[in-house]
């Protein structure tokens, strides 16, 4: 019988494959999409249980891809032998029309993560500082600090929201870029549009503002206040969006940045201009603006999220007021034990370290998954 692959082995073998075994694991763990906590390091060393896992650890959409997207992927397969030059230009134009900008303001990537990495490299190479709230999605800052930049962090406020006033005050003469994530990951919290807009206007007088809007479409349409309107007249504001979240295309990898062409040129020099695949482009085209599918995801997610927040209310456990598909709350007991006992029960979540404490970051699955999760979690913390 095959011995189950331990997480550490998997991690090492993935490294060996992707990096020709030349990167040290410390380097790669710094570049992971979310920071690894001490509890997670210890948990990875213990090996995988063989239970089927409910993935509440990656903020994925359990309902995607839509039927339209699946059909589009199947239909495009026969074009798999062709580079997607024309299809990329076509998608760029469609996105540009939706966002109200010229196509030269759009840079596509294999997920917005690829563009966060490129931005981190482009600005990190200049040295100086990058600035963000903390905790937040750290990918850009991880790449910047692997180049030559330092990362200045401003704690969230006590409701686990970005403190935009403190962020503006923290800009220094050598701050090359400030990263804003609204709605934020890992908290799902949202700050009012008027505050974020004033922040972007103020901060962009001094440095580049990167506004990450990966989860914006989880808000009701009337509340989806993007910063894209600022981009046209301000080369110091860029906005990124993704097809991974509301459209459920995380595994197909496609996202984009909206920004002034000069800024996009600086970022894009560190990427391949044709990285999104034919299948990803086709799925994105079929998904974009699919109001029915977005509403389905939004509504089902809100119902499933309430299962978790009702449980936390009942237990009097504090949490950030999430409007997306992720909730952060203080770990009621040792994070490593939570991870391993949940693993045994078939659930994966994340543990984050923040302010000397451990926090559970739970992604929202289906309603049934969340019902089963709260039952399992309650047994784990009993
Ligand atoms: C805030 C935020 N931005 C960007 C991303 C990257 O997503 P993708 O590369 O799938 O577009 C994520 C992924 O979880 C995220 O949480």
Tell me what the structure shows:
With 382 residues, this protein is of the alpha/beta class. The protein folds into 2 domains: 123 residues, Aspartate Aminotransferase, domain 1 (Alpha-Beta Complex), CATH 3.90.1150; 221 residues, 3-Layer(aba) Sandwich (Aspartate Aminotransferase, domain 2), CATH 3.40.640.10. The protein has 15 helices and 12 strands. A hairpin with a 2-residue loop joins β11 and β12. The chain is globular, with a radius of gyration of 20 Å. The two termini are 36 Å apart. 46% of the residues are buried. The N terminus is likely disordered. Pyridoxal-5'-phosphate binds next to α6.
Summary tags:
binds pyridoxal-5'-phosphate, three-stranded antiparallel beta sheet, Aspartate Aminotransferase, domain 1, 43% helix, disordered N terminus, seven-stranded mixed beta sheet, alpha/beta, 12 strands, single chain, globular, 382 residues, 15 helices, Aspartate Aminotransferase, domain 2
């Amino acid at each position: 019988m095959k011995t189950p692959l331990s997480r550490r082995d998997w991690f090492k073998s993935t490294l060996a494959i992707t990096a020709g075994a030349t990167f040290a694991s410390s380097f790669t763990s710094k570049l992971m999409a979310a920071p690894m906590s001490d509890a997670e390091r210890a948990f990875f060393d213990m090996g995988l249980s063989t239970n089927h896992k409910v993935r509440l650890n990656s903020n994925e959409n359990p309902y995607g891809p839509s039927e339209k997207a699946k059909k589009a992927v199947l239909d495009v397969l026969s074009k798999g032998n062709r580079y997607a030059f024309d299809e990329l230009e076509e998608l760029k134009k469609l996105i540009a029309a939706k966002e109200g900008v010229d196509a030269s303001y759009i840079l596509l990537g294999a997920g917005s993560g690829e563009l966060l990495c490129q931005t981190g490299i482009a600005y990190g190479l200049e040295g100086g500082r990058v600035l963000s709230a903390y905790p937040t999605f750290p990918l850009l800052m991880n790449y910047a600090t692997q180049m030559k930049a330092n990362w200045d962090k401003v704690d969230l406020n006590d409701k686990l929201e970005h403190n935009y006033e403190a962020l503006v005050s923290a800009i220094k003469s050598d701050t090359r870029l400030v990263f804003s994530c609204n709605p934020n990951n890992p908290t799902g919290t949202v700050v009012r549009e008027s505050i974020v807009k004033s922040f972007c206007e103020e901060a962009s007088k001094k440095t580049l503002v990167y506004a990450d809007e990966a989860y914006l479409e989880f808000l009701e349409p009337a509340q989806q206040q993007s910063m894209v309107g600022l981009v046209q007249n301000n080369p110091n504001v860029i906005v990124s969006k993704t097809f991974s979240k509301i459209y459920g295309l995380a595994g197909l990898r496609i996202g984009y940045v909206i920004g002034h062409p000069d800024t996009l040129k600086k970022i894009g020099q560190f990427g391949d201009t044709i990285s999104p695949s034919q299948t990803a482009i086709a799925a994105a085209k079929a998904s974009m603006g699919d109001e029915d599918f977005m509403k389905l995801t939004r509504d089902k997610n809100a119902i499933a999220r309430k299962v978790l927040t009702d449980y936390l209310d009942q237990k009097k456990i504090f949490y950030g007021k999430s409007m997306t598909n992720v909730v952060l709350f203080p770990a009621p007991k040792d994070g490593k034990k939570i991870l391993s006992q949940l693993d045994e029960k078939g659930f994966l979540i994340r543990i984050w370290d923040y302010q000397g404490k451990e926090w559970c970051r739970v992604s929202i699955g289906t309603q049934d998954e969340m019902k089963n999760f709260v039952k399992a979690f309650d047994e784990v913390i009993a």
